[in-house]
Amino acid sequence: MQYERLKVTIAAFLLIQMIGVTGYMLIEDLSFIDALYFTVVTVATVGYGDIIPKTPVGRLFTMGLIISGVGMAYYTFMLIISALIEGQLKNVWGRRSMNRRIAAMNNHIIVCGAGRVGANTIERLLHEKENYVVIDRDQQIVDALMEQRIPAVHGDATFDEILLAAGVARAKGIITALSHDADNVYVTLTAKSMNPDITIVARAERPEAAEKLKRAGANTIIFPSVMGGRQLAASMTKPVVSDLVENVFYNQEIHVDIAQITVRPASPLVGKTLVQSAIKEQYDSIIVAIKRGETLLNNPRAQEVIQSGDIMILLGQRDHLYELNRVASLEFGLERDF
User: Where are the bilayer-spanning segments (predicted)?
Assistant: First the structure.
């Protein structure tokens, strides 16, 4: 609002200058340079006396120019100073507040790069209600994120101090979505050395980068071009299935979701078969698969016994999945898995 007022004020001030120049050229028969000079020194209240109005009309015009021009010049100058000071203070206090907020974070996710891939990642994390910090080297992008109250750090994610500023030692995961494979490998190596337990999801553009990222410590490697190609083909060959997946994963208006829920040791579900757990009847959710250690049980049998540490993959209503997750963890305070 203040900047809009400043633009209007500057426009009005320039209009007064133009009126002054035109008036002196017509009334006092001055050249453009002399008229401009006389207008500026009059509005600035300098008054050297080398040029003075010689006609009564010119003197009246000068009086009007002083009354309107001096006040407008002072008001414009004060608005400019105010805008500069306010902008600097806003940046300083905003940055300090954001730093305190990031310093208080634990078990969060760090997103490296807020380009096209990173921006979509951020949007999804926001939808999933995850705590996250974004790192980007573009100051404009960081400023835009901070305007949205999104925790952001300006800098190169390959630098140790930038990762530390984002809380890599306390983070549970890092998504490195930088555009260059070499940068993603370097971020992976650095993050793993600072936090050996951190989970790393890395973006890769070239197939040969996958092995390097694995050796560097990446848990999962994503090829955006490959995934995009698969989705294009699926949309053509299996449009209904593709629409279903798109709606389940990305349509916020539809309350159906797919979730992974870890069964904790104290959960009442432990030791029960899928039939006995009544997950389908009570929570209106379908168990698609169970991950037990390194084994993935697809479409598990009704008599499959739920064990501690099982990771259940379910499809159901979002609210029901939240409630089921509470039962599986047995504690309200435990973090959700989906």
Answer: 7-27, 33-51, 63-85
Q: Rounded CA gap, 206 and 299, in Å?
A: 34
Detail the DSSP E strand segments found in the chain. Answer: 109-112, 132-136, 152-154, 173-176, 199-203, 220-222, 256-262, 285-292, 295-298, 311-317
Query: pTM score, two decimals?
Result: 0.61
If you search the block for the tokens 């140790």, which residue do you land on? 160
* CB contact burial 304-338 (16+ within 10 A = b; e otherwise): bebeeebbbbbebbeebbeebbebbbeeeeeebeb
Which residues lie below 8 Å from residue 323, measured CB to CB, with a gap of 6+? 283
Domains in the chain (CATH in brackets) are: 2-99 (1.10.287.70), 106-222 (3.40.50.720), 255-329 (3.30.70.1450)
pLDDT in tens, 241-285: 878 777 766 665 666 788 889 999 989 999 999 999 999 899 989
Q: How far is CA 137 from CA 7, 141, 157, 211, in A?
A: 30, 8, 8, 26
Average pLDDT of span 47-63: 84
Residue 224 reports pLDDT greater than 50 = yes
Distance CA 157, CA 180 (A): 12
61 CB-near residues (< 8 Å, 6+ apart): 23, 24, 27, 53
State yes or no: pLDDT of 227 exceeds 60. Answer: yes
Side-chain half-sphere of 104: how many Cα atoms within 13 Å?
7
Find the mean pLDDT for residues 51-58: 86
Grade residue 336 by pLDDT with cuts at 50, 70 and 90.
very low
